[in-house]
Amino acid sequence: MALNYKQYTIIILLILTVTSTTFFYYYSNTLDYKVEYTYEESKEFYNSGYELNMRTDNYYFIQKLIELDPTFIQSLNLVSPYPSEYYLNDPSYKLINRNLNLDDFTLYRKDNVSIYNDSSKYDNSYYKTDNKTILSSPHLYRDSRYKIPETREDYFEIGSPWTDVVYKAFLCKETGYDEEDFKRLLSVGEGKGNYPDTHALLGLLILEEFECYFEEKIREEKDNLIENIVNALERDNQVDDEYIERVLMLYWSNRDHLVKDKWIKKIIDSRNEDDLGWGEKIEGKSCPHSTGMAMLTLKYYLLEDSDKENSLFVRSGGKRIFTS
Asked: Counting Cβ atoms within 10 Å, is residue 297 exposed (0-12), middle (13-18) or buried (19+)?
């Protein structure tokens, strides 16, 4: 018996339903789907409306995410205790505005410093500004009770998330850069692919951007540090802030082909499910530094090759991101 039009329609709809269901079943079990779902869901971390002690590095992560994903700004509901001038007092704001004028900035080399591979040099041993050492304050994520820096010198004294060799790279145009500075940058590396190596690599990427040193030398040292970082990713099983930073550095170094799916999956699996962020909890909230890096890493993974802009620097300029 011949089928009528209605019966044909029902059969076709059944076939389409089975096909789409099967496709979704398989796609939902792919890493692409898991990355996309995790990335979109984790935008909620930035929509909580709490007061975020937004250091310049965390501020930068959000600006870079907006550049890569213009819809990201719609997810933001953040309050910062810092005035906008806070960011303009920091040389690392060049990540957002590479033309920031800092001609009056002072940064001096410390004399009689031994140059050798020693990770203790990671803690700001090489430079000073107006007789004050550049200090890191790694726990200044959300404590709005902390004094807000009023001057550049105050900022270095109480709130800098960067190491001094990285600041020297940011200021290479204003303060000059020579072989001695390059040695100091490389000497913070320890060869184990940990924070000292990622920060040394960060310094090289900044020098590369500003064309402050020999291209061939930078490329050679980048390759060495990247090899250390890849080895560390293969070696370590614990996913923490340092682990995420290693993967992100590979993207910023345009080494996407070295990023392995298993590393991305580990990052996804390490998310804090209660607030959809990453990293060690501080005052009950996930770490904005770890979260920003994880979100950027997932976004880079999702981008098509033709859409990728892996540059460390924000090319589109900063956006206003705070509700008050």
From this structure: buried
